[in-house]
Amino acid sequence: MILSCPRCSARYALSEAQLGPSGRKVRCKECGNTWFESPHPPQPPVKVVAKPPKAEAPPPKPEPAPEPAADPFAHLDAPEPPQDEPFQEEPWNPEPPADDFDQAMAGAARFDSEAEEPRHPRIPRLPRVPPETKKPSRIGWLLILLLIVGLVAGGYMGRQQIVAAWPPAALAYEKIGLAVPVPGDGLLIRNVRVERLLEGQALILVVEGEIANLSEDIQPVPMMRAALRSTERKELQDWLFEADAPTLEPGGITGFRTEFVNPSGEAADIVVTFSATGQM
Fold first, then answer.
1. How many CB atoms lie within 10 A of CB 212?
2. Cα–Cα distance measured from residue 200 to residue 223, given in angstroms and rounded to the nearest whole number
3. Does domain 187-279 have CATH number 2.60.40.10?
4. Backbone phi, then psi, for 65, in 5-degree steps?
């Protein structure tokens, strides 16, 4: 669709997805005029009449299978029936009993020798050897000690960056006697307002607010940081900017304004804080 500026008649090409279903406020890139543009009403859909499907012809009936022809040589391959053979009875000849005691003992000795199994030699059991236990080397203990020392030194030297990224860490440093100044201590960020503008093809996010000095001393205003977060509170985009005044008197108030071009479409909220990366 084509947008036209009411003041200078400048024309811009814009898609309906960028304008949104409820419209949005746009700003002319030529003269700076701002107006609210509503989407055009949707056109009625065109009715399409579908033709009825053609009736299909029924499938042909299957033909019956032909019967198998009779085999004229089937009687030649048939086996002949078995014929009964005459039974012949064999005479029974019992073994004569042993004549003497020696023959009976010889048969018993022969039976015992056939039934006896051969004996195999046994393998003696070897004594069990306990597994070797490896003792921790001195190099391993030295590496662990160096790792602990490095973590402690990093936590001490970078305490300001840690507190800036996670402010509750300041309480832990305070309990061990290492007070860490929090960026913007004594200053309050309030009345944060967010507005979206469309300039040409670019979507601009405008963030405005106030900074108040609640302390009784003159406070420097540090660098400020804005972060866009998703619905899961995960940071998507962030940037740094400066406030309107470098310092604030006791009870003084100053404002800030920043613009960000083409913010992420997954952004759900914005967080504005003071940054420890630098002072104004």
1. 15
2. 30
3. yes
4. -70, 140
Cα–Cα separations (whole angstroms), residue 112 to 106, 108, 121, 185, 220: 10, 6, 21, 107, 114
Number of H helices, E strands in the chain: 5, 12
Structure tokens that stand for 100 in this block: 């003497």
For residue 189, what pLDDT is reported? Answer: 95
User: Lowest-confidence range among 76-90, 115-129, 190-204, 262-276?
Assistant: 76-90
**Domain segments of the chain as ranges:** 2-37, 145-175, 187-279
* pLDDT given for residue 169 in this prediction: 76
In sequence order, what are the beta bridge partners of 222?
A: 279
Distance, in Å, from the CA atom of 276 to the CA atom of 170, rounded to the nearest integer, reads 13
- With a CB cutoff of 8 Å and minimum separation 6, the contacts of 266 are 230, 231, 236
Question: pLDDT digits over 23-59, tens only?
Answer: 778 888 788 888 788 776 655 665 665 666 666 666 6
